[in-house]
Amino acid sequence: MSLTQDWRDVSPAEVVPLLQAERRRWLDTLHWDLGPALKLVESARVRGEVPGLVLRDDRGQAAGWAFYLLAGRQLQIGAVNATTAAGVRQLLDGVMAAPEAQLASSLSCFLYPGSKSVASALVRLRFELQEHEYLEANLATMRGLDRALEDSWLQPLRAENGAAAVRLLARAYAGDPAGRAFAPNARLDEWAQYLGQIFVTPSVGSWVPEASLVAPGDGPDGLSGLVVTTEVARSIAHIAQIVVDPSLRRQGLGRRLLLAAAARAAALGAKRLTLIVSGHNTAARALYASLGFTRRGTFLFGQRGAAPRRVGGVTIRAGAAA
Predict the structure, then answer these.
(1) What is the CA 30 to chain-centroid distance, rounded?
(2) 173 CB contacts (<8 Å, ≥6 apart)?
(3) For the purposes of burial, counting CB atoms within 10 Å of the CB of 137, is it exposed (0-12), middle (13-18) or buried (19 or more)?
(4) Does this model's pTM top 0.90?
(5) Which residue of 9, 110, 259, 315 lies most exposed, with the fewest beta carbons within 10 A?
(6) CB atoms within 10 A of CB 200
(7) Are 240 and 212 spatial neighbours (Cβ–Cβ below 8 Å)?
(8) Which domains does the chain have, with CATH numbers?
(9) What would the mean pLDDT of 100-109 be, rounded to a whole number?
């Protein structure tokens, strides 16, 4: 029978190869170098700051792993990897039973699953799932980049745009379920934290200020659009966010922002451009298809309420009568 172990008690000699294998998987399938982000995770794990699990098979060998974080009252599952469907279920059951999960009022995940068993295991645990497509385009064949590079109306994203950018993100995603992947409760402080992480951590690659732009506007925030660009691997640029004020949609501003960011990334040496789009965002998917983007993979965003509590060995589910 397989057993799970707190990964903070496991030596780097065992954990680092697991993280290296995950880095190779992302590079091979997504052209995304997860190495810098995983290096931060491993450093925090060694310091005991990131909880997680290692799954061991009957021979005591590592057969899977998972990690998670408690941010405020929300538990965020960062990764779930196992070689079997039973292993995936066991890891997720272990996360749900963790002390951090018992303190959380909700749980979420944004995962690049290694198998379909991840989705089925999350559904079994009553997670509400959304699919997000990971798309890629060849910048050498994208039309209109020369003209977009000369677009002087768009301005570089600067630190003083931060508050306005946060409010624009909140407006753009208001009422859109896809926004829960970034700001679970649609609060401005959540949007501020999300945007700040892009700027200062490698969570979605390294920020590229030269290819991150804002469109000026007449509204109270002075912004009508925003595109934030990062680098997820050598010569691979990534659109971490692109939004347009709801009152200005379907007027070509999204295309203009995307082409301008693509042109600037190409001028910096990028060969390919990637992005993630919600599966239900039909308009955005049509725009990206017209620019030559094709799908390379699928991410899963999942969210659910509080985990069942265990009191004196008895499971108490949220909402149950006392």
Answers:
(1) 13
(2) 179, 182, 183, 186, 243
(3) buried
(4) yes
(5) 9
(6) 9
(7) no
(8) 3-125+302-316 (3.40.630.30), 135-291 (3.40.630.30)
(9) 95
Mean predicted lDDT score pLDDT of the chain: 93
**What is the C-alpha to C-alpha distance for residues 167 and 24, in angstroms, rounded to an integer?**
37
Instruction: Dig out the tokens for 1 from the structure.
Output: 């029978």
Residue 262, both tokens: 């693509």
> Which residue, among 58, 64, 131, 60, has the nearest Cα to 93 in the 3D structure?
64
Q: Coil, strand or helix: which one is 130? A: strand
Q: pLDDT tens digits, residue range 122-146?
A: 999 999 999 999 999 999 999 999 9
Residue found by looking up tokens 């407006």 in the block: 171
For residue 41, what are the contacts with CB-CB under 8 A and spacing of at least 6?
Answer: 19, 50, 67, 78
Query: Residue 320 above 50 pLDDT?
Result: no
Please report the pLDDT score of residue 67 as a whole number. 98
Among 197, 202, 209, which Cα is nearest to 160's?
Answer: 209
